[in-house]
Design brief:
- The structure is a homodimer.
- The first copy, chain A, has helices spanning 17-25, 33-40, 56-68, 87-93, 110-118, 138-150, 168-177, 204-208, 238-241, and strands at 2-6, 28-32, 47-51, 73-77, 102-105, 119-120, 126-130, 154-158, 185-190, 198-203, 216-220, 226-228, 231-233.
- Chain A is 32% helix and 24% strand.
- The radius of gyration of chain A is 19 Å and the shape is elongated.
- A five-stranded parallel β-sheet of chain A has the order 3-2-4-1-5, sandwiched between helices.
- Chain A is built from nine helices and 13 strands.
Chain lengths: 244, 244
């Protein structure tokens, strides 16, 4: 049995009860070093196996091998395991491990946890787009950002920065500024739900020159998004269209 | 104090620990009748106030009034309160209740819970779009769907059906079929995490003629999405681009 668990931001309080119970019932916990260490703070006395980033395939194969031998294995991912997480890779690799039962337990992805910190930026239609070009050509990322802006979707940007990608958010903002106004309400959250959490609301023009890292999640508002009492709020339209 | 709580699909196990604790600490629980009744199954001995759908403004104002009088109020929403939920409306209305402290607690939205049931359909970039035209013109919905398809985003459709909107998913599929192939891998989940849960994986052409209701969430794959051992899986690209 292999359970793929989204742990949310990392602290115990952000786990679902289903995720917590699955971790407690597991024998072996597998994950990227940073996230496995977060889990280790509140789930003790388990066998842990961690690999650094770029070792995803090795990590998932190891988890499947252990599960095929009858162990109860939990593979942990930050946020939701189905959003830029390991769930799809496990399903792909599991074709070689037909005996293993796989279960995915959803978790609070950064679009939701970061959105709650900023206010309510995603109350209407939105897109989630990663700026990481490790596995996706940059031209495809550019195309997706441009079309999402044309569609007037709120946009959540995952992986906006990182090693060798320090200017990617600047590039993304430049593309968006060809379509969206410079004063579009935007926001970002660093270290959501963790030590050092900070959040900022600013314009798209200001966002362009903001340094971010891989633990930052960025929010671009849609045409209705506004600043209300220090919060980034995208109305759904109840106050205009009806719903009284 | 007004805490806006996303409860996920509805059963206790899908709550985060943070959400459960906030419900337990509240005095008054406010919500749409259906969801408040789900909460009432596991949070007893509270004062409950419920309103039917289309009474959202009244419900949020009532919650703010109670909170302004010093009560500890929890406003519950299914899924995440920031995704087509009440969070933005509360922030808008709260301008008239400056003394009330507002806190948003994220929850498992249907894109995540439904995705976990189907497999891993959202492991790459995606859009979340509602087909409800109660508060959004249908032309805007059409435009967003078309652009999301052109962007090769996986698409999650919320509110695909309902009273007086029984042909909306058919319309949406017809628009998408002008851009996407008829055999595009799609899926849908009814009553996620509740009694009567059912899920199906099918082609876009087949989806077009599928009857759905307001408790259904629909997933349209991107160009890489495939069926693996009965699961809907959108690869992130680890097996092609690198990451070994």
């Amino acid at each position: 049995m292999l359970t793929i668990i989204g742990i949310g931001p990392g602290d115990r309080q952000y786990l679902t009860i289903e995720a917590l119970e699955a971790l407690e019932e597991s024998e072996v916990i597998v994950g990227y070093t940073v996230y496995a260490e977060l889990v280790q703070k509140f789930i003790k006395d388990k066998e842990y196996y961690t690999t650094p980033m770029t070792q995803e395939t090795k990590r998932c194969e190891w988890a499947l091998e252990k599960a095929a031998k009858g162990r109860r294995v939990a593979l942990v991912c930050s946020g939701d395991s189905g959003v830029y997480g390991m769930a799809s890779l496990v399903y792909e690799l599991a074709e070689n491990f037909p005996s293993v039962t796989i279960r995915v337990i959803p978790g609070i992805t950064a679009a939701l946890s970061g959105g709650a910190v900023l206010g309510a930026p995603l109350t209407h239609d939105f897109a989630v787009i990663s700026l990481s070009d490790r596995l996706t050509p940059l031209e495809r990322i550019e195309k997706r950002l441009r079309l999402a802006a044309q569609a007037d979707l709120s946009i959540v940007i995952y992986n906006p920065g990182g090693k060798n990608r320090s200017d990617y958010l600047k590039k993304a903002c430049e593309w968006l500024l060809e379509i969206l106004p410079a004063d579009r309400v935007c926001g970002y959250v660093k270290n959501i739900g963790r030590e050092g959490e900070e959040s900022h609301i600013l314009t798209l023009e200001e966002l362009k020159d903001t340094p971010v890292d891989m633990f930052t999640t960025v929010f671009i508002g849609n045409s209705s998004t506004k600043l209300i009492n220090g919060r980034m709020v995208t109305p759904r339209g109840y106050r205009i269209g009806g719903g009284n």
